[in-house]
Amino acid sequence: MSTHADVLILGGGSAGYSCALRASQLGRSVTLIEADQVGGTCLHRGCIPTKALLHAAEVADTARGAEGFGVRANVTGIDMPTVHAYKDSVVGRLYTGLQGLIANRNVNVVRGTGHYAGDRTVNVDGTAYTGSAVVLATGSTPRVIPGIEIGGRIVSSDEALRLPEVPTTAIVLGGGVIGVEFASIWASFGTQVTVVEALPRLVAGEDPWASKALEKAFRKRGITVMTSTRVTGASQNSDAVSVEIDGDATLTADVVLVAVGRTPNSAGFGEAGIDVDRGYVCVDDRLSTNHDGVYAVGDLVPGPQLAHRGFAHGMFVADQIAGLRPTPVTDALIPRVTHSTPAVASVGLNEAAAREAHDEITTLVYDLAGNGKSQILRTSGGIKVILAGRNGPVVGVHMVGDRIGELIGEAQLMVGWEALPSDVAPLLHAHPSQNEALGEAMLALAGTPLHAHS
Ligand code: NAD
């Protein structure tokens, strides 16, 4: 196999493999260098296994609450080996499928750790691979807190996914997306969870309305939420782990999850002459680095670290290399879903950003109390819509509630297509569905509310 390819990709995660598949579709020869397994964090240590655990957690909640629906059930415990077998079978099937897809597209996969050496060259175990174009797609790894080493009872999300038993008590450091999803999983499995967040609210990237609704729901679920609280140290022994908060008080638990963000895997790029800023690779709006013909994609590039952004970056760069002049990926239009119970989903601007961008805005919150399907599911929450001006377009949609993540597709179309409420209001929403809540919000904003007190 030649060591030169039209497109040489370093890293086979969401951004790297999507680039490989698209470049090959476009008739380019492709070499993909991967140190571990194609599919990367999303498939093996991120999105897919976490969402499998979240589904098992939902099953536990459903079974525990079954009596309230007239179904007699008795939850006698969580069998973690079987939970892991289920989760691993989902990952395994998708991994097999992905390997088949990559082989089918004639992508040359090189197994090994690649080091970018400049001059469109990547060294792997003494062999130099070159590309007419090079795509850096090495992703990110969990960030650590100085002085709080991962090991033993202190885990990152990588280890949290494989815990052999359900902890009786857990402290989650960081109330961002990862922290909130694990807090939700463990609480459903019966763990007593405390989330410690340095900022004044959970999921601080979301609209404050969503953070408030999530915190209220978490407290109702028995999850302790400590905001504006910083962890300063941790110590452990064979029985427990303790964390020091704000320099004095101490919390103790079986397990501490450190979920304080992810760091781009850019070691060595700066030495090879690539411009790097605080670990992130500097790119222009077409994802080109300062080296001619060298691109960076996914979590390496500043912006939301989301697998679907990685997919979009990878395909964009493949199209760009093929000379197709694709439209750049706009971070503001990327949908975000935190798959906790309740879920938080959003797209577009939050209220503060909308106020900054527009002279006048209109907001409306539609409460899920008025939505039949949400009542059937016994979930609460709501949908907040933000319009530019009085009549639109829709510039932001924020949602909180069980299963609400599935509504993000329509919300994304509204924001992406700059829809006016009067464009959407005449489109029927199936009854009874949670989707109707979005339809009702649009009816209300168009001045023709149906199931709303206004
Ligand atoms: P994050 O940035 O979303 O949240 C980390 C939180 O930790 C922040 O709120 C921060 O204020 C807090 N923090 C930092 N230092 C602290 C300290 N010493 N004490 C207490 N709190 C502290 O990061 P994350 O949750 O680790 O997730 C990493 C990335 O992965 C994010 O970009 C996220 O969007 C992505 N991700 C997405 C999904 C999804 O789409 N469902 C799921 C998992 C991860």
TrEMBL record:
Gene3D superfamilies with a match to the protein in the record: 3.30.390.30, FAD/NAD(P)-binding domain
Enzyme Commission number, as recorded: 1.8.1.4
Free-text remark on how the cofactor is bound: Binds 1 FAD per subunit.
EC class name: oxidoreductase
GO molecular-function terms, A-Z: dihydrolipoyl dehydrogenase (NADH) activity
Alphabetically ordered keywords of this record: Cytoplasm, Disulfide bond, FAD, Flavoprotein, NAD, Oxidoreductase, Redox-active center
InterPro entries per UniProt: Class-I_Pyr_Nuc-Dis_Oxidored, FAD/NAD-bd_sf, FAD/NAD-binding_dom, FAD/NAD-linked_Rdtase_dimer_sf, Lipoamide_DH, Pyr_nuc-diS_OxRdtase, Pyr_nucl-diS_OxRdtase_dimer, Pyr_OxRdtase_I_AS
Main subcellular location of this protein, as a coarse class: cytoplasm
Keyword Oxidoreductase carried by entry: yes
Catalysis: reaction(s): N(6)-[(R)-dihydrolipoyl]-L-lysyl-[protein] + NAD(+) = N(6)-[(R)-lipoyl]-L-lysyl-[protein] + NADH + H(+)
Compartment(s) where it occurs, according to its Swiss-Prot or TrEMBL record: Cytoplasm
Occurrences of domain Pyridine nucleotide-disulphide oxidoreductase dimerisation (ranges): 334-441
Cofactors that this protein relies on: FAD
Residues covered by the FAD/NAD(P)-binding domain: 6-314
Note in the entry: The active site is a redox-active disulfide bond.
Family as reported in the entry's similarity comment: Belongs to the class-I pyridine nucleotide-disulfide oxidoreductase family.
Protein name: Dihydrolipoyl dehydrogenase
